[in-house]
């Protein structure tokens, strides 16, 4: 859609005033006894004023092309933010494209050399557009944006964003301290469930995986599955949290940077075995519906009390807002149970990313738009749709379910952030496909956990040398 602000110039009339002296046109004869005045050569007549008195300065007009993924928060918030940006930046038109399959919409034009100026599209999506352009070094560095003052405010971007978000591979994909992704819409991820069901049954939320298996057996006795998942793509946050819980931060970073033998280690084996056992407790129709067309059917299993836990992010309640549900349904969310006894559970903080293609035409205004994303004005618009910016103090303004979701770290969960280090493209090799996409085959029994673990180590070996 296109909206345009038009600047009107008021042209004032140009008036020149002539000073011809005093009196009428009759020539006066000086008195004989009065000496005639000699002309004064050093007095200049003021020039006529040719400046239009009310002429306004012309505003340079430009079009900023913004492409955004339409997730569970909807498209309306993007329209409102675009309009607010235009209002605060006279002369700028935001040409906005929002779609649930944004990659399919903009890729043809990009291949022809016509790039959006700003793109909101997170890593971890099936099309892997963000990862592909990252591997091809086709993104513009945004480190200077972090030092920009937020438009309309007096604070810089980096001073407004929650600490830690710029110290992760999720924003610095090459691990070199240079920011290429601007963090957007953060969401503590965990296991969502019907708190009403657990209260009714008198079941406790598991804190360890042994307690999880015990609950699974109780639920199975009542024809309720312990687990389901929307698609295998949701195992990114799930697996990341398990890895950090199993071996801590150093182990986690070693996994993310393809350290030799790391996926065959004892800590990694714990993670593979947990997911393998969880497959035995997964609701039977999950694999058939674990795709982009039917994933909400798996999410519906939680609302219908056919499964207890589903890995997801804080957008889930909004995504299922209109779906039917069991009587007494009440959203609950918990961190993943601790892998090791005596430790806290873990929750991966997923955040979406906004970036600027290196081939963008209007890079300066694109950076201005990115900086504006952290303004109080933009954050308030996003929050109306449930999309929470990683801005310090935002959680204090939340109520209801969102207050519960964003308090997960206040309740003791360990926060986990950042994904795999970027690599140059390796033909036929994808860590996401091998590590996460294989889960369907584990649940269906088409592949063993041991073979899966071996495949992940092999992929890690191939990517290690290609790491930037």
Structure description:
The chain is 35% helix and 12% strand. With 468 residues, the protein is an alpha/beta fold. It folds into two domains: 62-187 and 350-400, Periplasmic binding protein-like II (D-Maltodextrin-Binding Protein, domain 2), CATH 3.40.190; 190-348 and 422-464, Periplasmic binding protein-like II (D-Maltodextrin-Binding Protein, domain 2). Strands 1, 2, 3, 4, 9 and 10 form a six-stranded mixed sheet that branches. Strands 6-7-5-8 form a four-stranded mixed sheet. Helix 1 (76-88) links the parallel strand 1 (62-69) and strand 2 (92-99). The longest helix has 22 residues, at 235-256.
Ordered list of secondary-structure elements with their pairings:
Blueprint: E1 62-69, H1 76-88, E2 92-99, H2 102-111, E3 118-120, H3 129-135, H4 143-146, H5 157-160, E4 182-188, E5 190-194, H6 195-201, H7 209-220, E6 225-227, H8 235-256, H9 266-279, H10 286-289, H11 295-303, E7 307-312, H12 316-319, E8 331-334, E9 346-355, H13 363-372, H14 376-384, H15 400-405, E10 414-416, H16 431-436, H17 439-444, H18 449-464
Parallel strand pairs: 1-2, 1-3, 6-7, 9-10
Antiparallel strand pairs: 3-9, 4-9, 5-7, 5-8
What is this entry, summarized?
This protein is α/β, with parallel strands linked by helices and 468 residues long. The protein contains 18 helices and ten strands. Helix 1 links the parallel strand 1 and strand 2 (92-99).
